[in-house]
Amino acid sequence: MQKKILLVNLIFFICLNSINATDLFWIGNDGNWNDGTKWSKLSGGSPCNCIPSSDDNVFFNASSFSGGGQTVNINQVAFCRSMSWAGVTNTPTFTGGQTLNIYGSFILNASM
Questions:
Q1: pTM of the full predicted structure?
Q2: Are residues 49 and 36 in contact, defined by beta-carbon separation less than 8 angstroms?
């Protein structure tokens, strides 16, 4: 009986945490983390005027940067559930003087 309760609780926890997660994509080349015009709910889409929370998955991909030498600056304490740079092109720089809190996975591109 305890195993069934534990399994039900685990499934409930996973489902509850998945409900609030939003995928956010970096758009518009370089800029500051807290600039809502740099985030979109679609890869290469329109700005959502939002910034990631600890529930959100963030992605940097081929639609994020149009050329080399561009930077994402962590200019405030920042949060996300997971972060992926796996599909990024143009070798961007990730920098900043503030804390970045990642509560899940963190994937960098091999060229970074």
A1: 0.81
A2: yes
